[in-house]
Write a structure and sequence with these properties.
The chain has 198 residues and is of the alpha+beta class. The chain has helices at 7-10, 16-25, 50-66, 124-137; strands spanning 3-5, 33-37, 41-45, 71-74, 79-81, 86-88, 92-96, 107-108, 114-118, 142-147, 155-163, 166-174, 178-181, 187-190. The protein has a six-stranded mixed beta sheet.
Length: 198
Amino acid sequence: MVARMSTAAVDVPGNGERWLRAWREIDLPTGWRAEVIFNGSITVTPPPSPPHNLIADLIDDVLRSGRPSDAGILQTLGVRIDAIGKGYIPDLVVVPRAALVTDEPEISAEHVLLAVEITSKDNADHDRKAKRWGYAHGHVPLYLLVDRWERPNPTVTLFADPENGDYAESVRVPFGKSIRLPAPFDVEIDTSQFPPGR
């Protein structure tokens, strides 16, 4: 279930800095996530399902063999996109460890090497559209979208080369095929064990 809180509910007008402040200060139960999205709301989601976590674990395994040696792979890191005054918590994010030495509650998108989102039934469109738009505006070089709920068949899409608020390149494969991540990773992710949404 996805609960949406309107601007009035969190008492913040559309100003980007105020949205970011509300996002930082919202108090949620353990495992829940809040994200500021492009239509002017804060989305609150419960902890991910077991299939969702399985996919994150399988991707994490592959990334560990190809990530830059000075980069970390994280699952609960807030990413601030200053250009649009929004903030997300990717399912997986790869960043240089040096960017984590900060007193800020989240990091700027400019440090992100790769953002990974795994769709849930209730937020698939958010990951497909709002986050693609947001990560592109934050100049995140690679955005991997694992879409368990794509119909007629689930897919994995790698977006690359952000420019003008979108990604200039994309490669999409159905579950069961492999998808290659370019440098600095140079790894192939086998999606054959990814469970589809039902």
